[in-house]
């Protein structure tokens, strides 16, 4: 990102040019029909215009500085895989950590250059070439602390709490520091009709749809080109769960995501892959299992057996960070809904004025 003051007038009006380096984030940064920019302009009493990836701020020098800091803070949140809500850009004036922004926008000389895992102001910060990942609540920070202290950690809870993001970020930090030699990513493939072999392409291409959320995070932190290089070298490895049997993962970080879709046998097999110098994180949401009703759930079974041996970090809907509406939706699904007699019989309910004989 380049920040350039283009003009300063004697009447203390100033013009600032902000140039952003990731065009894919700008739609969310500016808001639908640039509504977020408009609200920020009203908040600070400045004129904000954008052309392409550039934003022009005109107005009082101090007001422009505040608007600039606010925009940069929101952009840093987007680069850290956080979502913005409707209130962002209008009511709060966040404190900008310039040092963290400089680290987030530093250009490395190599894909894994400048490794860092820092802790400041009682918060963890994972610095990557194109973004900085910072925990957004106490539970995410507790998760990071557990990852630092234990070779095997489980994290369970609803979608949108950042389980996969935090786990993957920590694993990539270990890789950049040289504490592990590779990061192994695995998810159970729960098929819906077709067999995996039916899908076109090689194994990587077959698994791409299942691992797309993980690839999106890696692209955000390292860029697409650097991520592809790490995959080509085998530094980041995609390992189908069904092909893990017989392997020993020495000096590797294994992330087993969506573990609620593992069977009891698959979970036991995966846990026994942990080798010398290895670390493993298991994440999942037991409420969203796609297993057949007749299958035993490996994640629930593991919690019953291992809770006194390894740490289980339990997230709740109160820790949802993806979107404000998600927490309300989860609350609605947790509220019992009265079932009508027609629904119990799998029959559509008739309108109140309908004639049942017609």
Task: Describe it.
The chain has 358 residues and is α/β, with parallel strands linked by helices. It has 2 domains: 2-96, K Homology domain, type 1 (Ribosomal Protein S8, Chain: A, domain 1, 2-Layer Sandwich), CATH 3.30.1370; 108-334, Rossmann fold (3-Layer(aba) Sandwich). It is built from 12 helices and 13 strands. Helix 7 packs across helix 8 and helix 9 (264-271) packs across helix 10. The termini are far apart.
What are its keywords?
alpha/beta; globular; 6-stranded parallel β-sheet; 12 helices; disordered N terminus; 18% strand; 2 domains; single chain; Ribosomal Protein S8, Chain: A, domain 1; Rossmann fold; 358 residues
Roughly how much helix do the residues carry, as a percent range?
Answer: 25-40%
The overall strand count is 13
Strand order of the largest sheet: 10-9-11-12-8-13
Order of helices and strands: EEHHEEHHEEEHEHEHHEEHEHEHH
What oligomeric state do the depicted chains represent? single chain
Q: How many structural domains can be distinguished in the coordinates? A: 2
Please state the average pLDDT score.
76
Supply the CATH architecture of the largest domain.
Answer: 3-Layer(aba) Sandwich
Globally, the shape reads globular
End-to-end C-alpha gap: 68 Å
What's the number of helices?
12
Provide a short characterization of the protein structure.
The protein is an alpha/beta fold and 358 residues long. The chain has twelve helices and 13 strands. It has two domains: 95 residues, K Homology domain, type 1 (Ribosomal Protein S8, Chain: A, domain 1); 227 residues, P-loop containing nucleotide triphosphate hydrolases (Rossmann fold), CATH 3.40.50.
């Amino acid at each position: 990102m380049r920040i350039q003051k283009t003009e300063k007038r004697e009447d203390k009006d100033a013009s600032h040019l902000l140039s952003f380096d990731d065009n894919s984030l700008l739609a969310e940064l500016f808001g639908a029909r640039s509504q977020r920019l408009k609200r920020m302009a009203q908040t600070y009493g400045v004129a904000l215009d954008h052309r392409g990836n550039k934003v022009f701020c005109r107005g009082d020098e101090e007001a422009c500085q505040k608007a600039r800091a606010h925009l940069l803070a929101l952009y840093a949140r987007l680069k850290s895989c956080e979502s913005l809500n409707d209130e962002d850009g209008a009511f709060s004036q966040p404190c900008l950590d310039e040092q963290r922004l400089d680290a987030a926008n530093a250009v490395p000389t190599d894909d894994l250059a400048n490794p860092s895992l820092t802790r400041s102001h009682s918060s963890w910060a994972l610095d990557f070439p194109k973004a900085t990942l910072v925990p957004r609540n106490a539970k995410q920070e507790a998760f990071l602390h557990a990852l630092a202290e234990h070779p095997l950690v489980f994290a369970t809870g609803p979608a949108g709490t950042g389980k996969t993001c935090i786990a993957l970020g920590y694993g990539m930090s270990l890789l950049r520091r040289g504490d592990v030699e590779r990061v192994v990513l695995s998810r159970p493939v729960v098929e819906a009709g077709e067999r995996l072999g039916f899908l076109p392409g090689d194994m990587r291409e077959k698994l791409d749809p299942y691992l797309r959320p993980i690839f999106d995070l890696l692209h955000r932190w390292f860029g697409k080109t650097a991520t592809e290089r790490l995959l080509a070298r085998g530094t980041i490895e995609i390992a189908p769960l069904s092909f893990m049997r017989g392997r020993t993962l020495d000096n590797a970080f294994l992330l087993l995501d969506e573990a609620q879709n593992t069977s009891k046998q698959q979970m036991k097999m995966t846990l026994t892959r942990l080798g010398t110098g290895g670390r493993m994180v298991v994440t999942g949401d037991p409420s969203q299992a796609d297993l057949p009703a007749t299958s035993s759930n490996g994640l629930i079974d593991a919690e019953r057996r291992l809770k006194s041996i390894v740490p289980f970090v339990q997230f709740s809907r109160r820790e949802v960070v993806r979107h404000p509406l998600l927490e309300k939706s989860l609350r609605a699904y947790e509220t019992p809904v009265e079932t009508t007699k027609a629904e119990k019989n799998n029959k559509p309910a008739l309108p109140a004025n309908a004639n049942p004989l017609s």
